[in-house]
Amino acid sequence: MSTAVSGLVKIGKTGTGNYRERMRFLEGNGYANATGLKREFAIEVEDYDAKEQRIDEIFAKARVGTGELFALDVDLAKQLLAAFEGTQVHPPLSRESKEKVFTRAVDRHRRHAEVRCIPDGTYRCVLSNWCGRRNHEN
Fold first, then answer.
1. 45, 47, 26, 22: which is closest to 37 by C-alpha?
2. What tens digit of pLDDT does each residue of 59-115 get?
3. For the chain, how many structural domains are there in total?
């Protein structure tokens, strides 16, 4: 799920039987002070506890606090989840196939990654003291 804060993503698991109810609750109430949650991708998989643990390990450095929020590109998360074997739950297959979700996420993530790169060149770093003292160039 994406949140109202760009770059903040909620990744978690819920049972197939209460998926719709859980999504409505999160979309209406938020999660751990994150609001504006929006469904991005959901997949039903076997051995979901092990898969969630693996996702937590992969994105460990991006975890915000101790919950299910991660500071990362939503397309990177969608890319990983779409690579799992399983039955796509959201978006409905009638709207978009798992392969299309994966391909679109890869393309969007690449575009976002290129924007974040610092172009080659020579850069000057100016360090300033917050007390208003003289600036030092390095």
1. 26
2. 999 999 899 999 988 888 998 998 999 999 998 887 888 888 888 888 887 777 655
3. 1
